[in-house]
Design brief:
By secondary structure, the protein is mainly β. The chain has a domain at 59-156: Sandwich (Immunoglobulin-like). The chain is 4% helix and 43% strand. The protein has one helix and twelve strands. It has a five-stranded antiparallel β-sheet with strand order 5-12-11-8-9, with no helix packed on it. Strands 6-7-10 form a three-stranded antiparallel β-sheet, with no helix packed on it. The longest helix is centred in the first third of the chain and has 6 residues, at 2-7. Mean pLDDT is 74; it is low at 60-73.
Amino acid sequence: MLCLFFLLPKGVVGQEAITGSGGDIQSSNGSSISYSLGQVAYATISNTQKSFAEGVQQTYTLKVTPVNPGGETEGTSIDCIVYPNPTSNNVTINIKNADPSAFNYLLYTSNRRLIKQGNIQASSTLISMVDLPSGAYLLTIRNSKRNIMRIFKIIKDNTLQ
C-alpha cells in the first residue's frame, strides 16, 4: 500500500513561469542556451549584499575593472548597456557617462574567435549581427589603452521576429 503512494503522487511540482516568449538555441558546436522574455511573476530574495530573483533568467553581464599600472583612475568605469538581448538582427551599445570615441568593441564567438571589431563613434552604436548564426556571443568593450571595460553575453536567435 505504501508503494502505491510513492508510485502515484498527487502532483509534480517544478519550476514554472508565465512568460511572453522564449526558446532554446542550439549553436553549431553543440552548446545550447535557454532563455525567456516577459516573465511577469517571480520571487526575489535579498539581503544587504546579494539579491536573487528566483526563476528569472538574468542577462549575463561581467564588469571587469581594468588594471592600471601607472595608478591612473581616469576611465575605470563606464555606464554601458547593450540591447536588445536576445536579438535576431542588431544590438545597440549605449555609453552614457564617457566619451564614446575613446572605446572600441570586439565581438567573439563562444569559442573565443574574433568575428567583428570596430570603433564606437557615438553614444549609441549599432552592431549588425544579421549574417551570424544563432548562438551565444561575447561583446567586449575596451578603452583606447586596450583595457577591457565591460563584457556582455549576447544571445542571437534567428527565430525571433
